[in-house]
Amino acid sequence: MEEPKRTLAYICPKCKQSVVVERTQFQLAAAANKLPCPCGGSALLVELEADHADLTVPCAYCGRDHHIRCSVHTLLHEEALAFSCKATGLDCCYIGTERAVFQALRRLEEAAAHMSEDQDGQETFLNEAVMTEVLGELKDIAQRGGIPCECGAKDYKVKVLYSSVELTCAQCGAKLRLPAAIGEDLEDLCCRYTLTIGGKGEA
Questions:
Q1: Please, are residues 11 and 60 in contact by the beta-carbon 8 Å criterion?
Q2: Is the pLDDT of residue 95 over 90?
Q3: Which residues of 29-59 are buried (b: 16+ CB within 10 A; e: fewer)?
Q4: Taking each helix axis from N to C terminus, what angle separates 183-190 and 128-143, rounded to the nearest 10 degrees?
Q5: Contact criterion met (CB below 8 Å) for 81 and 96
Q6: Beta strands in 105-180 (DSSP E)
Q7: What does the pLDDT average to over 123-147?
Q8: Chain segment 36-68, per-residue pLDDT in tens
Q9: Residue 2 has pLDDT above 80, yes or no
């Protein structure tokens, strides 16, 4: 039986190209994994301990490394994991099944291309038009009482980031981050009648 594999992907901050590597669960668990970009300008570092995994992720958006910790089980078994840049809200690393990672990477590359085109501008958001429409859709959903929290509360706070909107439950602190960078993000939101903070939302 073939050993389960994990696909890892990020965009190199040096050459701006996607870096995609595949490792078996055993390879990830056996020793620290340094996964460099072919250009030599960056590398993703994955280290597994007994109960947690530490990742050092190069970021193409803010130019810094992000240090992330998650459970070993999550790293090795979740279908798709997305880690984001705190400065921009954009995803900077994906880990999961090959299919899920490549689907997510396509969206990430589109957002990165948009950022590259507008890097000399002074825009407040990565994509002003998409953000405006996303906020409008959120307002419509909220007006029909469609943004509850899993804890049962209905009060929440809204934080508008560079490429996403973050909803935080005022009672329990649970969060829901909604991407607002490309047209596909808007299309996904338009298909939802309700959103659940702390959950995945409902159609």
A1: yes
A2: yes
A3: eeeebebebeeeebbbbbebeeeebebebbb
A4: 10
A5: yes
A6: 156-160, 164-169, 175-179
A7: 86
A8: 999 999 999 999 988 899 999 999 888 899 999
A9: no
